[in-house]
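Hi everyone,

Forwarding the result from last night's run.
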Amino acid sequence: MGIAVNGVDIDDSAIAAEIGHHQQADNPLRQAVHEVVLRQVLLHEAQRLGVHGEGEDERIEALFQREVRVPQADEQACLRYYLAQAERFRSGDLVEARHILFQVTPAAPLTLLRHTAEAVLAELQARPGRFEELAAQYSNCPSGAIGGNLGQLGRGQCVPEFEELLFRLRPGELAGRLLETRFGLHIVQVRRRIEGAPVPFETVRAQIADELQRAAWQRALHQYLHLLVGRARIDGVELGGATSPLVQ
C-alpha cells in the first residue's frame, strides 16, 4: 500500500493481520491501517528513548508509563463532579412506564418503520387515550398485549439511551420523539415516578475518582499520540481524526 513510518515500510501483511480486529468499525481497512501506523510510531518512540520490554505491547505500555502522567483526582474535583452529576448518584429511583416497539425486520425496513412509528406518535399526541389500543395493534414487544406496560423500572435495567429518556420524562409525559435503540424504534411514556434518595458522596467518592482518573488518562494519552504523530514522518496515509484501541 506504499505506507511508511519514519522511512520504514509497513508490509501489507501487517495490515491484513490487523483488519480482523476491526470488523465492527465503519471502515475496517482504514481503522486497521491507522492502528498499525500508530503502533509503529509508538514503537519507534520507545526505541528512541531506550524503553524496553519483552514484546511490542509491553514496550508500548512501558512507554506510556514513562511518558504519560496525570495527577490524582482531588477531593474538590470529585465533589464538583458529584454535584454536577447528582441524578446519577441516587438509589431507589423507579419509573412506571409503557412503550410501543417498532422492530426492524427484513419485511419492515427502517424507512418504512419510521414512517409508521411517526404516524402512530402523531395520533397519540392528538389522542393520548389510544395508547393501549395502538400498543396492542403495533408493538413488537410482548408488552403490547398489556397495553405496552413495562411495569416499574429502576436504573440499570434498560439500555442506556432508554434509561436516560425514562428518567428525564415527567409523570404522564409522552416523549415527543421516537427513541432509537438496537431493538428498534420506541414510543415511550412515563406514567408515574417514585423518587429514591441521594447516595452519600463518601459512598461513591472512590468510584468518581476512578472515573475522573480514567478520563484524564485517556485525554493525556490522546494528546501524547497527537504529539508523536505530528513529529513522525508518515507517508502514504493521513491520520487526521484517527482513533485507536491502544488508548481505550
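The chain has two domains: 4-73+204-247, 90-198.

Cheers,
N.
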